[in-house]
Amino acid sequence: MNDQADSRKLLVDVPVQGGTLRVAQWGSSGPVVLCVHGITASHVEFEFLADELAGSCRLIAPDLRGRGRSNGVSGPWGMAAHATDLVAVLDHLGIARADVLLGHSMGGFVGAVAAARAPERFGGVLMLDGGVPLFNVSFIAWLPFSDWLVERLVSKIIGPSLARLDMTFESREAYRAFWRRHPALAKDWSPHLEAYADYDLDGDAPALRPSTRKDALLRDVRTQLVENLVPQSLKQIRVPVRFLRAERGVFDDAPLYPEKKLARPARGIPRFSSALVPDVNHYTLMMSARGAKAVAAEVQSLL
User: Fold this and answer.
1) Where are the beta strands (DSSP E) in the chain?
2) Which residue among 120, 164, 173, 291 is least packed, with the fewest CB closer than 10 Å?
3) Dihedral angle sign, alpha carbons of residues 84, 301, 244, 228
């Protein structure tokens, strides 16, 4: 099923195990950039990048299973399932190889697994403030109520982004107001962010809900943090891996990836390099004009 969203973007539904993925595509020719969004996001976060790269490449971004208009997919969950979905998207669109695999936040972890499992399908990996483990929490796997512990851990990292999944909103404006109060976005509110918030809603007023499935999120986090899949995958990647660090973190505060914290795990990743993007936080690295401009420059250099 296809439908034209606007003059720039084509939306396509791609069959995968458990349902269909909604996939956005900007442009129809040139190098292919496959984009993977963050843990509770959707393809709409890449509207900023689509503006910057307009006419220069073919930008493709799925709503990951359990998010956006792909939230009807029944599972399985986890980084391996997302990686398999990325290959399915390329196959469905008749693309033998994406020139750049770009992952923001959790999307970086998905990208790591995909590049290790299907190296012939990707020319290079661009990780945006995600993809390299922040810490080792494998002990959670051996404790009772581990899903509860995972939820507590995620809540400490992303806070209101997780809490909202248990909330309802009386109107679209109420949901926009929720996001406008977020410390990472308050100073950068824009029409693109308003569209991002609107797209995220499911249901009808006055009981609108965010579209991300919490059960999918928690299982994804478990496989991302507890299993050894991501660390093993990072060591197996043979294409160039470029990592962009945001100067500030999830709450416009301390960065998730200070240079010293990234240095040790990065040593085990072949062909790895990193750079700091100034004056952005974990969100605005991708969801602001200045962040997208910096990311677009890195994309062009990988191409």
Assistant:
1) 2-4, 9-16, 19-26, 32-36, 58-62, 100-104, 125-128, 201-202, 209-210, 241-246, 272-277
2) 120
3) positive
pLDDT of the residue at 224 = 78
| C-beta separation of 38 from 54 below 8 A | no
Residue 58 sits at φ, ψ, to 5 deg, of -105, 110
Q: Is the pLDDT of residue 5 over 60?
A: no
pLDDT of amino acid 154? 75
The span from the CA of 303 to the CA of 297, in Å, is 10
Spatial CB neighbours of 284, under 8 Å, sequence gap ≥ 6: 184, 185, 188, 246, 290, 291
Q: Which residue has the tokens 């009981």?
A: 207
Taking only the tens place, the pLDDT of each residue in 134-162 is: 876 565 556 554 666 677 777 677 667 78
Cα dist. 215→8, 187, 209, 211, 287 in Å? 33, 31, 15, 12, 25
- Cβ neighbours, 10 Å, residue 157: 16
**With a threshold of 0.85, does the pTM exceed it?**
yes
Q: What secondary structure letter does DSSP report for 63?
A: P
Q: Cβ contacts of residue 26 below 8 Å, gap of 6+?
A: 8, 9, 10, 50, 53, 54, 58, 59
- Beta carbons of 198 and 244 less than 8 angstroms apart: no
* Overall average pLDDT of the 231-260 stretch: 95
How do residues 17-45 score in pLDDT, each as one tens digit? 999 999 999 999 999 999 999 999 999 99
